[in-house]
Write a structure and sequence with these properties.
The protein is mainly alpha-helical. It has one domain. About 70% of the residues lie in helices and about 0% in strands. The chain has seven helices and no strands. Helix 1 runs antiparallel to helix 3. The longest helix has 24 residues. The N and C termini lie far apart (about 55 Å). InterPro entries: Methylamine_util_MauE (IPR009908). It holds the Pfam family MauE. It is found in: Membrane.
């Protein structure tokens, strides 16, 4: 169980670290994120910049809090913070869908895919992973082998890419007829 917890912790840390980094990559990236928050019309326009700063700051805090475990501190704080953020994201996406607001998901950088059910599913899965790791942290801990823990960390980090690239993965496995081509010579 300890290795599953380690893998889940690294998965959560990579997902949240990637999310924060993608929004802070350039000034334009952050502006685009702030604009998307305003277009959601869930918070008053005047608060969209503050919500953007708070969101990115909290996303960046999650991997830092999880990394504090390397110094003997509990990763439960980072996991709890991640869980709260994910649940908040689920509510925000549901509200946007209810309003019929079709704003692209700025979760991991620029995207053309509007927030929708796939993002709720992704965040529910991530919530389950963060919750399982948090529960694992609350159970009695057994000593871990560092080599096996490193393997679990690499595996968790690799699986995190599925969540970071979730829109692409869904598109890859969504069965749709090929786009109809028109024009001369085709």
């Amino acid at each position: 169980m300890a290795y599953v917890v380690v893998g889940c912790e690294f998965l959560v840390a990579v997902v949240f670290g990637w999310a924060a980094a993608s929004k802070l990559r350039t000034a334009s990236s952050f502006r685009d994120f702030t604009d998307s928050i305003a277009r959601l019309r869930i918070v008053p326009f005047r608060l969209s910049a503050a919500v953007s700063v708070g969101t990115v700051g909290t996303e960046a805090a999650v991997p830092l809090a999880l990394g504090a475990a390397l110094f003997g501190l509990t990763p439960a704080v980072g996991l709890g913070l991640a869980l709260l953020m994910l649940l908040g994201f689920i509510v925000m996406i549901a509200l946007a869908m209810r309003k019929g607001t079709a704003v692209p998901c700025p979760c991991f950088g620029a995207s053309a895919t509007p927030l929708g059910w796939r993002h709720i599913v992704r965040n529910l899965l991530l919530s389950a992973i963060a919750g399982a790791a948090l529960l694992g942290q609350l159970l009695p801990q057994t000593p871990v082998d560092l080599v096996l823990a490193a393997i679990a960390a690499v595996a968790g980090s690799a699986v995190a890419l599925v969540f970071v690239l979730f829109d692409d993965v869904v598109e890859l496995f969504t069965l749709r007829p090929p786009a109809r081509r028109t024009g001369a010579g085709i």
